[in-house]
Write a structure and sequence with these properties.
Layout: E1 10-18, E2 21-28, E3 43-58, E4 61-74, E5 80-82, E6 88-89, E7 94-95, H1 96-108, H2 111-118, H3 122-137, E8 148-155, E9 158-165, E10 170-175, E11 188-189
Parallel strand pairs: 2-4
Antiparallel strand pairs: 1-2, 3-4, 4-5, 6-7, 8-9, 9-10, 10-11
Length: about 200
Amino acid sequence: MTDLLRLSRLAFVDSYEEGGTLIVRAKSVRHHEPYGCCLLFSFSKMGTKAVRYCDHAIQGQPVWLEIKRQRFRCNSCGKVGYEVLPDIDTERRITKRFREHLQKDAIKYPFTMAAEINGVHETLVRRVFDEHAKRVLGKYKPMLPRVLGMDEIYLHKKPRFVIGDIDQGYESTGAYFEHEALHPSHWMPLPPTPTE
């Protein structure tokens, strides 16, 4: 039988269609108990609950995984928790691989287009992108010159702006209306200023 899920910690049970959406029933290969709320780590099983999580579309058809999650009760404090699903982002109710796919699509396309392509709401794409951007750009610190000079000029019959590091004597040119990235290869030394 073909592994429809391709998730190592979940096993395929069966699938059916519901209103144009493919519902794939799955179960955990091994139940992972919730992280302990108390020092004893003593849990009792307390039934299951079917929960749906969004996954990649298959041939343009939206896919939801329906997983019967095991509930556990802590024997010392009575707190109820669900089993841990390593392949699932339980906060957003999507698979982790789908979350990574949304992160890439949010960079490639506008948020509305990425949402439409993947069959999800735009706010989900925005939240996933914001979380990804905070993680990736959290330690990024732009290096800016102490004195930045800016001017506009026509070069090759196109309006351009010129920015330069006045202290170090470097300048860079870029187009006004084109989204050209200012890469360090664009930087060139300024001609020496004439002394009087």
